[in-house]
Amino acid sequence: MNRDHVLHVINTIYEKVFNEGRADLYPAFVSGPYIQHNPLFPNGLDGILGYIKQAGRIPCEVKRVAIDGDLAFVHVRYLEWAGQETAGVDIFRFDADGKVVEHWDVLQPVPAASQNANTMF
C-alpha cells in the first residue's frame, strides 16, 4: 500500500468530503464490502453516505495521522458533531488498491471544563 496515496485519501475525506460537504467524492475511496464498526451505521456504503449527505458539511480539523500497515489512525477535532465539539479517532483499513474497506471510530464530547490544563488535541 502506498503511504502517499493513503495520505491523499485521508486528506480528501476530511478536507473535501467533510469540511466542504462533498459527499459525492466518498464512494471513489471505498471498496466493498465496506465493513462498519460504528453501531449506528450498517455495513456497506449507503448508510454512511446517507449520513454524510444529510449532514452536509462536517467541520473538522485533522490533528495527527499514523499509518501502520494497512491501517490509518486519524485524530480529529470535530468542531460540531451532533451539536457539540467532539474529539475523535477514526481508524480506516485499506485494501491493496488503496481503498477503504473497513472503519472504526471513537468519539468523545469535549467537556466545558477539565481537571488539567491539557487539551484533548
From TrEMBL:
It comes from the Bacteria. This is SnoaL-like domain-containing protein. InterPro entries: NTF2-like_dom_sf, SnoaL-like. Residues 14-103 form the SnoaL-like domain.
